[in-house]
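Input (Ferritin-like domain-containing protein):
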Amino acid sequence: MTIKPSDPVHFRSAFARRLTRAILASATLGLAVDNVACANVVMDDPPPGDGGGGAGEDGSGGRGGMGGEGGGGADGVTTVQAGGVSWDEEGTVCVDPGAQGGGGQGGVGGQGGAGGSGGVFAGACEPLDPAGANVPLPPPGCWYSSIGDGVFRNGECCYEFTASCGGSGRPFLVGERARTAREQRRDAGGWGGAPRPDLAGLGQEARAALAEAWLRDALLEHASVASFSRFALEMMAVGAPAEMLAAAHEAARDEVRHAALCFGLASAYAGAALEPAPFAFGGVVEVTSDLAELAARAVREGCIGETLAAVQASEQLAHATDAAVRSVLAAIADDEARHAELAWRFVAWALQTGGEAVRRAVAAAFEAGLAAPSPSAAATGASADALAAHGRPGGAVVAASWSRAVAEVVTPAMRALLSAQAAG
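Output:
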């Protein structure tokens, strides 16, 4: 199906229809191990630990069970304070330190003693795990990029965070944090393949803002090469069909091209040649062979994240007037739509192949990803018209495009996905 990236309304409509057809086709590839008959999923609460229950309002532990220990506490988030979203969101996550600890110690034998104090804080705040059960996800299309050390205040451990929002490409996540390379200056190299934008009439403030925005996208696209490479290995580990494996490698090649295009634009606006520094993998790249885990991550990174990225690129293209920028955005919007389609096809196949465990993981991933708060618009300091002409419309446009993408593309495709799985 031909999609017109420059017409956001047509793009969203055609994109949704294409995803539905791809989902139905991929669902027939799976050989169902455990078919289920219900697409409306109700998630059960996790079982409590043996012994005492959770802490009460006064911080005391629950009563100990029959000679058992108090139940373990989850990371309980009590407040989230986030600023406006443009390309980055900054805020604070505060966690009850008592919930990080265990419950009280039960009595010995017989009737079991009263549970000990389960909510008393002792010691420094522990590092915050962004993948923790009760740590809220950033808005759809956003990823934690940094989380600071915990500071104890007002009875809670509070952590400053930065979440990267918008942009294109599939994020390379390590423990729910998006990892990218740093930028560096270059004399010559292969990371500047974009046509040159027209810089006439752009003030210094606008050029600096455009350089920063396109550099950020360049680094995310560069990281997407690693993300798709890992995804290909993981698909091999779970026995995915050959055509999906080939599509993942093709997507990685697309991301190399996208990165070069974005680095080219960033370099033109900055007036200096920019490229990625060596990528800091840390010596180990973890690869999962757990189909449920992989399907859940594909939901968040691909079905939600890349779908939003494709729709956003279409919206950026509709507002851009610079010929060089339009050519870059047209290529990115079309390619990201195909990349998102791969994620939806993979999840459809995984649902038919993996049975109940995958169904529950996928349903939970959609529930968590779509329940996250929507990003808010942020004011633009530089000339709004100049930024929009070069592919950077204001925060209100971006936030609205994400809302429309969720309503018109992601939600209908999710329903088709779960309905096809239930019918199987």
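The mean pLDDT is 78.
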